[in-house]
Amino acid sequence: MKKLDGQVALVTGATRGLGKGIAIALGEAGAIVYITGRSLNSSNGSNDISGSLLDTQLAVENAGGICIPVQVDHSDDEQVNQLFQRIQNEQDGKLDLLVNNAYSGVKVLTEAQGKPFWKCEPSLWDACNNVGLRSHYIASVFAARMMSQRQQGLICTISSWGGLSHIFGTAYGTGKSACDRLASDMAVELKPYNVASMAIYPGIVGTEQFKTMAEEGENSLFRDTPKGVAKSDRFNWETPLLTGRVIAQLKSEVDVMRRTGKVQIVAELARKYGIVGEDGEQPASLRSLQFLLPFAFAGLRNYASFIPDIKVPWWLLLISTLSSPKV
């Protein structure tokens, strides 16, 4: 018996990248996986990076799962409402897991690279945080209505280390920081209903978009990231499947409520549970000396496995490397 047999999951923004990997992993674990995106097939894709709902459906089915693609524009609240009505009707009100992943800000962030926020159009904010932060809230509203009725469920909101430190600019960082707060505050209100909510921190994920931008180097979004993140050696990169397998593990935990309201770091959970990604990788946490030292000193990268996997305490990160709000 698979760990998520009979459970119903929804992954938003699953035509490619992280969402696709998460959907595959949940299907692999036995869940019935609903997926959303704007492109049903490759012919109606909106950019140069390939991927569609039907591509993801095939990949999930090849992994032994059941996948139901639903074409949805998450900037349209009525389409989102209809999506949840469909799940309500088809699954008799059952929804066990929501993964808030949809994000439409990559293109505008790339175009805005190198510019301070005041030299960008104000619309940059909406482009980053409408399908992203706002759409996560809307989807969570509808999911919570279903989950609270059954007194069970898990909402995972994909966030980023960029919510703690300046990476891709003000609009991005503020949105990701708000995703963390969204997950935390929802957890407070959902706890009496036995529904868990948490923020998920992947590491350096080698999505199709990320690989393309890394290859572009100085002409891409990565011009403003810490030196070495997008190096061609792909040091400490992870595949999207790893995040999905970690979320599947979280959903299968009997005592998942002990994690509610907290940030869950994919790499740390993967090592704890012996989970690997598509390439067999088990990356170090971005707060581990096993990542930080080779990241700073490239000559150590071939010897990273010999460095102790010691995590920098969270409080120390907040007063040193990271630049989250301080008093």
Query: Termini, distance in Å?
Result: 50 Å
The H/E string reads EHEHEHEHHEHEEHEHEHHH
Count of DSSP E strands? 9
Q: Which strand order do you get reading across the main beta sheet?
A: 3-2-1-4-5-6-9
SS class: alpha/beta
The parts where pLDDT drops under 50 for at least 5 residues are 226-230
Averaged pLDDT, please? 90
Strand content: 5-15%
Helix content: 40-55%
How would you describe the shape? globular
Rg over CA atoms: 19 Å
Major beta-sheet overview: 7 strands, parallel
Number of helices: 11
Describe this structure in words.
- The protein has 327 residues and is an alpha/beta fold.
- Helix content is 41%, strand content 12%.
- It contains eleven helices and nine strands.
- A seven-stranded parallel beta sheet has the order 3-2-1-4-5-6-9, with helices on both faces. A two-stranded parallel sheet has the order 7-8.
- Helix 1 runs parallel beside helix 2 (53-62) and helix 8 (240-252) packs across helix 9 (266-273).
- The chain is globular and about 55 Å long.
- The N and C termini lie far apart (50 Å).
- Residues 226-230 have low confidence and may be disordered.
